[in-house]
Target: Ornithine carbamoyltransferase
Amino acid sequence: MQHLIDLNDVTTEEIEQLFELTDEMKENPDEFSAVMDNKTLVMLFAKPSTRTRLSFETGMTQLGGHGIFFEMGSSQLSRGEPISDVSQVMSRYEDAIMARLFDHEEMIELAENADVPVVNGLTDLLHPCQALTDLYTLHEKDRLDTIAFVGDGNNVAHSLMQASAKMDVDCRIATPEGMEPDEEIQERVSDADVTVTNDPYEAVDGATAVYSDVFVSMGEEDEREEKLAEFDGFQVDQDLMDAARDDAVFMHCLPAHRGEEVTAEVADGPQSVIFDQAENRMHVQKAILHTLVNE
Ligand code: CP
Ligand code: NVA
Model:
């Protein structure tokens, strides 16, 4: 792996090795406390974040290195400096770049111009670190079998589809009509056990995990009222959880909006693993950084 931009470019073996390394690093953190000694990760943000910023920055500290929070709005990027120039400048100082951007094409441009590894911390199209963490969390909980994602067919759903395809996981995506996943991504996973439906109950039947994401993604704030209306019937409530397997877990990438995409009863109930997912973002990303920078 040179960069982590799109799970389509990552092999099954690479994901398996990453999970093994995550297990090892989570179990024996002290053995890895100097692997990033004197190394820096710049974290470029064009959108808000709680988990991505905290987990990468804390992860770098735990590996003996340093994470630099770099907000697009306060940099020269906001005054028109080309992303290709910024990428080359960053490559002269940093050992790795993590970025959260709107346009996926900009992420590709960033990586194409970088001499150091680039990690995608979310674009409008993809969220690979999240999906790797989600599958790792299910593997840890012995539920890596059938995922039902109920919500918007965008970044989180796309990366879950790609990760599931690589790991031979049955992945069902339930969206309202017109919000189905990107056709090119559907096409790329067409040989895998990935299905798309407009019926949440069909999706969760037999599922070992039910997954929810916000109805209004970052950058869509102006469409809030229309989107909430379109998602009528797609809230994950206890009735929908009860239609999945008895031992199914509830997952959410967070932030969660209780009363919108999920009820408080489910988000804070006994089946919920949302904070294990949030914690695992850091463990999985430490393994990603160690792999990309040192191996
Ligand atoms: N799930 C996730 O990426 O969270 P943040 O937006 O808080 O980083
Ligand atoms: N789909 C959401 C994911 C947040 C982690 C968004 O893009 O805002």
User: Anything to note?
Assistant: The mean pLDDT is 98. Residues 142-272 form a domain with the Rossmann fold fold (CATH 3.40.50.1370).
